[in-house]
Amino acid sequence: MSNYSNYFQAGLSYPVYKQLIVDLLAAQKTTGQDHSEFMLHYSKMNLQRMNRVEKTTELLPELSTYLKSFNKPLNFLVITEGWCGDAAQIVPVIQKMVEVNPQLFNLRCVLRDENLELIDAHLTNGGRAIPVLLLLDEEGDLIGEKWGPRPAILQDLLNTWKTEGVVMPELAEKIHAWYAKDKTVATQQSLLNHMQKVI
Q1: Domain hosting residue 81, numbered range
Q2: Which of 133, 140, 177, 190 would suit a FRET pair with 151, their CA atoms being 20 to 30 Å apart?
């Protein structure tokens, strides 16, 4: 896959993506094909998480400074779903980053299950893990490699927990407890490191 312009142009802005989740929940649905009580519960929880992250997140000074230093356009393409817990913790942070330099930065969200060719080009250990962030230049070409689906420090913990036999829903509880304690700091640092590495 060489150019991502079509995906980006078809994507949703963050406010529209969030409103889609709200509207689907009002109809007892979520994004994707699985509208079970389990998935609806996760989507409702994730909406609360998104609201909390939006209200409480302050960008790190070093990240803000870096983002303000840009003098050319940069597009942020995120593969996500409303039921995804990691996405609820991370996509609002990316939106905050885009808001630092709105003249040059744009964010578009695309749904994983409606874009399988896209996610299959960016698998994580053979799986369709999300969220995935793709940085694109103004021509729609990919800059470097993908970021995601979570900060490496949490991925390492997740691998350890799985090795110890922790399974859902306890696994999700541990993940979100970690996010709550970290207050998006590791996510911001990881995204900053990624951008500095690939750009």
Answers
A1: 5-198
A2: 140
